[in-house]
Amino acid sequence: MTTSLPLAARADLLVGSVIDSSTSLLAQQSHDIVRFAMGSPAAEAIPWELLQEVGRSGLGSSSAFDYAATEGEPDLRAALLEMLEGTTDRTTDDRLTITSGGMQGLDLAAKLFIDPGDLVTVESPTYTNGSATALAYQAELAEIEVDAEGMSIDALRAAVDRAGRTPKLIYTVPTFQNPSGTSMSLARRTELLELARSWGSVVLDDDPYGMLRFAGADVPSLHELADGDPLVFSVRTFSKIIAPGLRLGWVDADPSLQTLLINAKQSMDTCANLPAQRLVAGFLQRGYLKDHLATQRTEYRRRKEAMQAALAEHFTGRATWTDPEGGFFLWVSFGDEVDTEELFARALAAGVAYIPGNAFSPGRRFPHDLRLCFASTPTDRIHEGVARLAGAIDQG
Amino acid sequence: MTTSLPLAARADLLVGSVIDSSTSLLAQQSHDIVRFAMGSPAAEAIPWELLQEVGRSGLGSSSAFDYAATEGEPDLRAALLEMLEGTTDRTTDDRLTITSGGMQGLDLAAKLFIDPGDLVTVESPTYTNGSATALAYQAELAEIEVDAEGMSIDALRAAVDRAGRTPKLIYTVPTFQNPSGTSMSLARRTELLELARSWGSVVLDDDPYGMLRFAGADVPSLHELADGDPLVFSVRTFSKIIAPGLRLGWVDADPSLQTLLINAKQSMDTCANLPAQRLVAGFLQRGYLKDHLATQRTEYRRRKEAMQAALAEHFTGRATWTDPEGGFFLWVSFGDEVDTEELFARALAAGVAYIPGNAFSPGRRFPHDLRLCFASTPTDRIHEGVARLAGAIDQG
């Protein structure tokens, strides 16, 4: 009982994020709260009735509950290849590995490429669980500024100059970025790939929201632009387009990595859960995804517009916000007078939840910013939530 | 297209196992094969009809498909605590983390404790995916002999003397060991814990089969004997008692590790899949497990006895085999004249599959041994499979 535990050096780097403390604080609240915090699809956007229908036949045998192949259930792999046909994520069977959500795709990339002390660049702001995974592999992080055209390639070059070495891995969410909502322009995508080639850096192309475009024109994915360059490692997920609780996604990577990916995944969780793979395979085979995405895109656009209208009503001249063409998130920047971490408890008391900007930056660079998820809240509640946020700020 | 990939040093250590090449060879076979290879429950032992029944209500809302809490769905945690009440794995809420199968429990232990170069002891023979995980964290492995009373503590002491340093982690499957089928005696369990305390080593107590005892008397788990000692890290799974495709298990560890476990799991796969958690919670809440286990234990005993009878018929005087009191596996040892890797293809052609002994030893110490899973094959087919194995050997 008196022994102390011999933790590994990396244990100090297994960081929780403000997201969790926020959401666990959130879980304790019993009063009515408008929830702009989590990046979940709307409850009404989860096609649970269709999934139940698929389950009635797809889960009707013992084989649906056995171990799955580590690379993924053949039916799901086939249905996924067909789903991607004609999209900017079109791919081939030898590049695919089914994962336990997009998060495991990031873990796999980190496991394959990051040695302790390696330089990894992350966006600033970035998706916290992505930067946390790189940290857990003892990477040194450099934050690269994001603006209205996505990650700044000039800032990336400058950071590499400052570091005096090239990055092992360049982590980006290029489309409808989490948390900013902005997308990397075609010119920057091209430039990023050229730079990565010249440096020999792996581009970790994490694109969970690409299929949720509701405005503007399509931009080719980094996967498509790479045209088979082995340096681009693409991570995708069903979490945002079907349901996050299924924990299913895929990695699209150079065929030479397939065996390593299978070996690495085997020592992580053996295989992805098979009933969920059957549900998604059936959902795709029945052709449900197309209508489902069309409905979601229309609804998410309405919600984004409602949120922007409410922000304009309450915050014109006091804050700026981004204008995403898809995805789930808006990024709001206040002046120095608003401390969004300090504001959080007051906002919660007023009945609205969000994620403070510092949660998206290892260096805590965004004390006056916050992320709002517009996707999971109906439009009338969005107006109410933004009004409550304004009230909380005015109380401060 | 010409860039080479900057793999991490650990990439060389992401080994596949003979298990996989065997089973993938197996998957290609179209003729009738008696399958003693995989460690899956019998098809008829998977309660898919009950799981479907649970699913009709448990999956009937969008909330069943949302993100789950990283530590696990509250309903499942509560049902699990109740299920463990009165067993040798009785525990408390502050020690539990729900995992994506037992494999993720092993990955979590490795992530928390193994620094590159650390000495980790594994049993010899050992569960390959366990040793593979330690290797993936760049551990140095030492193999410790297993006999009829489980891991030899004398051999453990001798290995540590030879290494000139104490292990960071001692990996064991103490009960109905995979692959040998033998169990560690109470005396050795006690001695192991004393040694681990004196060395400050973590005991990774991986016990997937403990609830499947069909003969002999209960032995307290390492978890129970440890009585709260933080050095014992216990990994459990629903794979063998309900269904492996659900990918659900749990870690039972010192409460001081809870936050680290949650942070580590978040950067692995965010959370375990929620529909499967709902199915298992409902299965436990409805009290289905008790009858289910009673049925399985009776049937697995019949199958083990059938396999031993068939082995006695064909191999008396030519081989020895273990006498497990539970679990899934028998270990068969031939003399020098049988090379079980070389035999494998011939056995497959004769219509029987097994796993060669060398698959269970990083040092390939078991060229004349093999593992048979008796659990997944009905008794008449067991006789047929052993007869085919004898035929394949006699052809050699």
Give me some keywords for this one.
Aspartate Aminotransferase, domain 1; 14 strands; homodimer; alpha/beta; 8-stranded mixed β-sheet; 396 residues; Aspartate Aminotransferase, domain 2; globular; 13 helices
CATH architecture of the largest domain in chain A: 3-Layer(aba) Sandwich
Beta fraction of the residues of chain A?
Answer: 5-15%
Biggest interface pair, counts: A-B, 92 and 92 residues
Give the overall form of chain A. globular
Task: Let me know the average pLDDT of chain A.
Answer: 94
SSE order and pairing:
Two copies of one chain form a homodimer.
Chain A: H1 18-27, E1 34-35, H2 48-58, H3 74-84, E2 96-99, H4 101-113, E3 119-124, H5 128-136, E4 140-147, E5 150-151, H6 153-163, E6 169-172, H7 186-199, E7 202-206, H8 222-226, E8 232-237, E9 249-252, H9 258-269, H10 274-285, H11 288-315, E10 319-321, E11 329-334, H12 340-350, E12 352-353, E13 355-356, E14 369-373, H13 379-395
Helix pairs in contact in A: 2-10, 3-10, 4-5, 11-13, 12-13
